[in-house]
């Protein structure tokens, strides 16, 4: 996939619009509680500033659904970005309008402006032509560095690109494309995919697609419950997608026919509620009728870790349990450590909760690549063309 990096574009003195992903969590006091996404785009922003560009950043925050929601203003994000850059960041009053146009027009070389939350305008998610042209009018060069939104055909990721003379990608996006593309090539074997999370329905397409590419699939999290139920296990009060049982059985048949090994938990950690102070490990054949499975058990974690150690290409998306609750985090953390311990493999973690788990385990520096986009990485590894990348290719 041929794309130009920002360091291959002539940006000196030009107005450079950089689509970034600054959709960060905020505290009740409206301070940034996790600035990882802000820090991720710093190299791109700093490069543009060092080249003497006039930088205009565009991002969304939350889901305001096309209306102004003061609590979702990018003001605290601008403040944190200014601290990290150690220079002023001008925040506009609206994404497009006379006020924002004046801020952009008055920018000097080496200065930076952040447009207010793009999703305050309904034209962003609708990929509205007028809104897209409004954004494009601010820029001489367009750079997309927001991989987490690359699977969305929005005005700031697709619509405006054709109205800007030059375009390319930032350092975050370039690295994502390079590493995730390797999973679509002739990879080292065995190739193992690890999938978790809540719903089979959320991962059905990627499961089907991976059958054509991988040697084995590990399934954990609540989605494993549906597969266990499809095998006739009694899951008690566990979350099970009853309407997906036929699909789960069909998938297991297909995997067997293709020679792809599907590994399911052999034990789970159960409790009577998500708020229980602790859980109990039981066999998947002995789940109490009044309990729910909330994590893979220690025997499953050991077995999964052994499979991970034997593999030479690894992709992971989705936690093994309710890892944000301490009593049910051990399975996910164990897998994160198993990924980190396999120094011979290409290890790719597909964003979202999996990336959070890797950060929580403190082993991100021992993973080949931790993606900044959960949904986008899932679509990429299926070979699906992402609109935000196609637009700049």
Please explain how this structure is put together.
By secondary structure, the chain is α/β, with parallel strands linked by helices. It has 2 domains: 6-174, Rossmann fold; 183-381, Phosphoglycerate kinase, N-terminal domain (Rossmann fold). It has helices at residues 36-50, 75-85, 98-105, 122-125, 129-136, 155-159, 171-182, 200-210, 221-230, 245-258, 298-310, 330-341, 352-361, 374-381, 387-390; strands at residues 15-19, 54-58, 90-91, 112-114, 141-144, 166-169, 191-195, 216-219, 261-263, 267-271, 280-283, 292-296, 313-317, 346-349, 369-370. A 6-stranded parallel β-sheet has the order 3-4-2-1-5-6, sandwiched between helices. The protein is elongated. The mean pLDDT is 95.
How many distinct folded domains? 2
Low-pLDDT stretches: none
Please give the alpha-carbon distance between the first and last residues.
7 Å
- Estimate percent helicity: 25-40%
How many β-strand runs?
15
- The appropriate CATH architecture of the largest domain is 3-Layer(aba) Sandwich
CATH superfamily of the largest domain: Phosphoglycerate kinase, N-terminal domain
Strand content: 15-25%
Give the ordered list of helices and strands.
EHEHEHEHHEHEHEHEHHEEEEHEHEHEHH
